[in-house]
Amino acid sequence: MKSLVAVVLGVLLAGVAAQGKEVKRGRKVSKRQENCAPRQYGYDSVVCVCNATYCDNPGPISSPADATQFTSVISAREGQRFQVNTADKGTAPTDGGTIITLNRTQTRQSIIGFGGAFTDSTALNVYALTAPVVDQFVNTYFSEDGIKYNLCRIPIAGSDCSTRPYSYDDVEGDVDLVNWALEPEDTDYKIPLILKAKAASPGPLLLFGSPWSPPAWMKSNGMFNGSGYLLPEMWQPYSNYFVKFVEAYEAAGADMWGLTTQNEPLSGFDENWGWNTCGWTAEDMRDWIKQSLGPTLEAAGMRRLMLMVDDFNRDTLPWYVQPMLEDPDCANYVDGTAVHWYSDQWVGPEVLDETQELFPDKWLLHTEACQGWDVGGADSVQLGSWERAQDYVFRIIENLNHYTRGWVDWNMALDLMGGPNWANNMLDSPIIVNATADEFYKEPLFYTMGHFSKFVQPGYQYIQSSTTDGDLQTVAFQSVDSSESVLIVLNSGESVKTVSVDDGSGSYVNLDLPVKSLVTLLYKL
Question: According to the CATH classification, is domain 63-110+461-525 in 3.30.450.40?
Answer without folding.
Answer: no
